[in-house]
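Team,

Forwarding the record for the chain on the shared tracking sheet. I've put the sequence and predicted structure together so nobody has to dig through attachments.
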Amino acid sequence: MDTTVTHNHEASHHDLAHPVPKRVLIGVWAALVVLTIITVLVAGKDFGRFNIWVALGIATLKASLVALYFMHLRYDSPFNAMILIVALSFVALFIIGTITDTAQYQETMETPANWNVAQ
C-alpha cells in the first residue's frame, strides 16, 4: 500500500518562482555597492541647487535595481510593473511639488532676531 501523499498546492506554488542566475544577482549586488560608494562620494560635493536631484537620481536607480531583480519585478506580469511605475510617478510628482514650493519661499525667509546660531 502506497502512503505517499502529493500536495498539488505545494508543487504548483514552487512553479511560480523564477530562478535568477547567480551571476545576475551578484552583478546587481555589485552595481548597488558601486552606487552606494558613488552616493557617499557625491554627498561630499556641492552641486548647488542640484544636490537633491543628484541624490534622488542615484536613489531611484538603486531602488529600481532592487525592485527589478531582488523583488523579481522584471520577470513578473507587465501589469504589476505598470502599477509600480504609476505609483512612483505620483511619488515623484509629490516630491517635485514639495521641492518647488520650498524653493519659492526660502529666499524670503529671515532669521529671527533672538535666534541662537549654536542651537
